[in-house]
Write a structure and sequence with these properties.
The protein is an alpha/beta fold. The chain contains 11 helices and 13 strands. The strands form 2 sheets. It has an 8-stranded parallel barrel with strand order 1-2-3-4-7-8-9-13, surrounded by 8 helices. Strands 5-6 form a two-stranded antiparallel sheet. Strand 5 and strand 6 form a beta hairpin. Helix 4 runs parallel beside helix 5. The longest helix has 19 residues.
């Protein structure tokens, strides 16, 4: 594989860890101890970054966890998800700058265009609010004074005294498939994140977002969020994937998916379409398996195969323009170890540079 990519893992803060999908396991429930162990295993395994997801009603708090784990990490970055519908930008900027200092400058930020829990804002205004939030956060984290007269916030403030280590805003990672989401990404994001799809769709999406950003005089980098099931042989990987679903019933799977606050988003609908278009074994193209989407809202497919096949798939995405991968697997700590042993040593990787 040529070229350098950021290779990130996933800490299951939102009650999303299983040995068998749909079968709760108290030992894998989101807790400080369990998610800490995933984070420490990811750093020991050599991953460059760790996504800390965020859900209002699920699991444990993202920023509180980030502050707790920061002093325990020596090298790895954190990609902290923040739900824009639930925050006041000046306060969030201070929290993020503080965590960045605790990490020695290794914070990255995943912007989520969320509603305020209990309320629903239409897609257009919700994404416009997200663009305003990104504008404000970037200004505060860059150390700039703000005189802002927006649709959702009207603020005239000096920046918080606390600043990120670099003196500028950490990178903003952002995803979404709808027209409103794509426009928001083009206006305010640094890294556009995609969920799994066929190669031709990934190519088209990158071309579209690149053009939208260029019209605004901006450049985007591209990231890809996908699960992995890697074993020494393809047969073993497929057996492991089938085992993951072996105790799942359809009713439980639907209940798990519907409890997510983004279960009706354009991106989630696309994951459903992808799964419905798959062959009987769940594969929609070589080594891309959609079975995980039977019990998960959001990212609903996995790269399944032996180490060479997984490497080849990652290279194919990289050739399309992907420079950052956010990977996960079940159980998360065990699959991180497998990927770290079988695949990561064969990748040229490191923190994404903007």
């Amino acid at each position: 594989m040529t070229g350098r990519s950021e290779i990130s893992w996933f800490s299951a803060l939102c009650d999303d860890d299983y040995e068998f999908l749909g079968v709760p396991d108290p030992g894998l429930a989101s807790s400080w101890e369990h998610c800490r162990n995933i984070a420490l295993a990811a750093e020991a395994g050599g991953f460059d970054n760790l996504l800390l997801p965020s859900g209002y009603g699920l699991g444990i708090d993202t920023l509180a966890f980030a502050g707790g784990i920061a002093p325990l990490l020596k090298r790895m970055r954190l990609l902290a998800a923040v739900r824009i519908g639930e925050v006041w930008p000046p306060q969030l900027a201070r929290q993020l700058a503080t965590i960045d200092q605790m990490l020695g400058g290794r914070l990255t930020i995943n912007i989520i265009s969320s509603d305020l829990p209990g309320e629903t804002l239409a897609s257009g205004p919700r994404y416009r609010r997200t663009v305003e939030a990104m504008t404000l956060l970037r200004a505060f984290l860059n150390g700039e004074s703000v005189d802002f007269d927006g649709e959702f916030w009207k603020l005239k403030l000096d920046p918080p005294r606390v600043r990120p280590v670099s003196g500028r805003a950490p990178p903003f990672y952002f995803g979404g498939l709808s027209e409103d989401a794509r426009e928001a990404a083009a206006q305010g994001a640094d890294v556009y994140l995609m969920w799994p799809d066929r190669m031709e769709v990934v190519r088209e999406t990158i071309a579209d977002l690149r053009a939208r950003a260029e019209k605004r005089g901006r450049r985007l980098k591209f990231g890809y969020r996908v699960h992995v099931v890697v074993r020494e042989t393809e047969e073993e990987a497929r057996i492991a994937a089938d085992r993951l679903l072996s105790r799942l019933d359809a009713k439980t799977g639907e209940a798990i998916k519907s409890r997510s606050l983004d279960s009706q988003s354009a991106g989630v609908r696309r994951q459903v379409e992808l799964r419905e278009a798959a062959a009987g074994d769940g594969f929609v193209e070589d080594n891309l398996w959609t079975g995980i989407g039977r019990a998960r809202s959001g990212c609903g497919a996995a790269i399944v195969g032996d180490p060479d096949q997984v490497l080849a798939k990652l290279k194919a995405y990289q050739d399309l323009g992907v420079e950052a991968f956010i990977l996960s697997g079940y159980p998360h700590q065990a699959e991180a170890d497998l990927f770290a042993r079988h695949v990561l040593p064969h990748l040229e990787h490191g923190a994404l540079e903007l």
